[in-house]
Amino acid sequence: MSSGYLELDMDLERAKVLKKEEHIKHIKSLVREFSVGGGDVRVPERWLIELGIGWVLHLPLADAASAVQTYDALMTWIRALAQVVEIIGYTEPLFPEQAVNQLSNIFEEEEQVLGQLQFAKFFQEAMFKMLPFVDWIVSEALVASNGMEPPYENLSTLLGVHGALSKALPQIQLASSLPQIQLASSLLLSAEVVRIQHDAVGLLVAKEAKVVGAIWSTMKEIRNRILAPMEDNGDDSSRTATLEGSSDIHKATRSLISYIELLRTNYSSLAPIVSVNYQSHNAAVPPLDSMIIGIASCLEEKLAEETGSFPDRSLKFLFLFNNSYLISQKVDPLWSVIEFNPVTANNESFLSFIKAHQEATIRKVQSYMESYLQASWVPVLSCLFNNPTPLSLAKNKNYSPLAKFESEFQKVYTTQKLWKVPDPGLRKTLRKAINMKIMPDYTKYIEDNNITTKRIAPWELEKMLQELFEG
């Protein structure tokens, strides 16, 4: 490492030390002012204002409520909590044990413990002022939304608060377990310090538990919203689209995909919560993974029921093909999280389950594609080989098998050109499958019957097939 980098590292380290010393000096002055004022609550309140969260002092007033509804305000509260916890970690520098060992009389010993007590009370008061935000955010998250969208934003907010509390709790527990100043003449004061610290830990534990409960309730609400029948969720546009029929991705599928992405992003935070509240039917599968698979399976069953109203069987199978494929594409990447869990990664039962699930998913998607081909293109092809045209009309080119084939092909093409397969790769695969279903037999028919005059040339048919499903 060059001398320039070493100097930069030293400068950064000195800056950190100076910043820490400034924090300690500032907190000492605040604690002293708090103590002289007989526990003046305005002092810790002023500190919270300095930290940018003065609005927590006015909860749950309407103006404060509107202030904390923004992402920036939430992040400010999280940063403020981190700073408070950081300062609490300075307990030893504020009250060094060496200074106590060097005290020469009982008065100085009691003065030292009294200072630590005031420090503990100051932070207790600050925490009391900060943590009602947790209650407020939980109550807001659990209030039923006026809209019908699943409350993903509420879940993200709760996860942010939970993450801050989860990070703060072990640090405060560590601070509370540091050797306390326990002098013979100051046992009562020292015991009071310990009690305050333990109360702070207990309060944080209770708030964290409350947030966990709200997270699980919100997750259940999201599941219910995703799986709610169209006629029950008040979404007229989705209901109309379902009745009329569309091959596109269903709104519920898009909602599930958003949910899966949110769960995957927060997998490490949510896995412990889900493991306590959700009982997996397969012991080899982690509860969160099992829960996601369960929701995806329920949605696919629901979508299959919804297609009962579709006017066209071909459209029904194309719709299921599109939606099942997208769901499988989002569920399967979840298996990559096993890299964070060495125990699961080496679990043969779990790995076998993954393989079996992926194979079953592939078979399901392929079955929808084959059903679509049978409903759409096999009847077109049958015009060439299963032709009941009377002999009197068979020689008429307008009634020939080829003419019927071309006519039916044109009808299907005209209709399905407006249908949609959103995924480019899936669209390419389906076009290729149609080509393989139609073109070999069509070409063979032309060759076997020495047909030289055609309304649509083979290359034109192939070009038309490449225009399908653009929407």
TrEMBL record:
Pfam families associated with the record: Exo70_C
Q: Which residues cross the membrane?
A: none
Q: Which GO terms describe its molecular function?
A: phosphatidylinositol-4,5-bisphosphate binding
Q: Which UniProt keywords apply?
A: Exocytosis, Protein transport, Transport
Q: Which GO terms describe its biological process?
A: exocytosis; protein transport
Question: What residues does the Exocyst complex subunit Exo70 C-terminal domain cover?
Answer: 77-466
- Where is it found, in Gene Ontology cellular component terms? exocyst
Query: PANTHER family from the xrefs?
Result: EXOCYST COMPLEX PROTEIN EXO70, EXOCYST SUBUNIT EXO70 FAMILY PROTEIN
Q: Which family does it belong to?
A: Belongs to the EXO70 family.
Q: What function does this protein fulfil?
A: Component of the exocyst complex.
Name of the protein in its database record: Exocyst subunit Exo70 family protein
